Amino acid sequence: xxxxxxxxxxxxxxxxxxxxxxxxxxxxxxxxxxxxxxxxxxxxxxxxxxxxxxxxxxxxxxxxxxxxxxxxxxxxxxxxxxxxxxxxxxxxxxxxxxxxxxxxxxxxxxxxxxxxxxxxxxxxxxxxxxxxxxxxxxxxxxxxxxxxxxxxxxxxxxxxxxxxxxxxxxxxxxxxxxxxxxxxxxxxxxxxxxxxxxxxxxxxxxxxxxxxxxxxxxxxxxxxxxxxxxxxxxxxxxxxxxxxxxxxxxxxxxxxxxxxxxxxxxxxxxxxxxxxxxxxxxxxxxxxxxxxxxxxxxxxxxxxxxxxxxxxxxxxxxxxxxxxxxxxxxxxxxxxxxxxxxxxxxxxxxxxxxxxxxxxxxxxxxxxxxxxxxxxxxxxxxxxxxxxxxxxxxx
Length: 395
Hints:
Helix content is about 30%, strand content about 35%.
């Protein structure tokens, strides 16, 4: 049997040192490759872990919100608004002459016609002044008649040269002066006759006496120096005016000529029909309402001025609305807002409220049924801030 030393040849003896050096190099290279592979994997793992940490940090910093969608509401057929009734004509009655009240003929609640005598005032001073003015008028008329006769005579004599032109002109001028005195006294008599006619107080229109503020023997002072006291207060109630503040969002329902229905608590089940006749054509900046007037016929007098009524106004078919939970509303300085999630961000949408149902509210503008609105939004929620919708939070 041949041993290892015996099988060695000169060729193998020559390559043996090189093989011995190559084996450790291969081992070293393998170890370096394994080390580089491990380092590379560690770096990649750390980068992935960093990304995961950053993502989780961003998710933790982004507020999670629950959202819901607006529910379509049935189209409104009408709105019910409070209104106040007023008499079509409401007027206080004052005396136009001074004196003492001697008679009054109607008390509160009395229905009177235009021209009915309501009261009589005794005016002795006016009566005496009128008599004096009439006497002065008679005197002035007599002087005028004499001046006219004299002027006519002098003009006749002037034709024959019996009098001078100067004397004739004086007579004619005196006639004109006396005519002016007559006119002045006539005007004074007419003035006093008118004052005397104010002794009788008549109803200026058909209506009802709502107040009587005088009595027999009361001193009547019609002077402008002191505040005059009214004798009666009258109201025309055959037709009533109803003033209704209509919210701005429903202002297009206030069309002249449209029908309005009125209901009152004292007449349950009964409906009174009126007509919208005019509006203020301007929105009140304080209340954001449009003042409209509804006229309602009241031939039986069932409706009283000053009564509280509920006015039912028909709405155009173009008004559509949605309902949302009340806990989605944000009250900001700019106005009412609702948080809507769009492209991962919160948008504060301005909205207009219709009717308040308590747990839910009606929104007549600003939202669509497909919008995702935030439930219980934080007061610190800003427009455009990123939000994260919770899984299963949409309702």
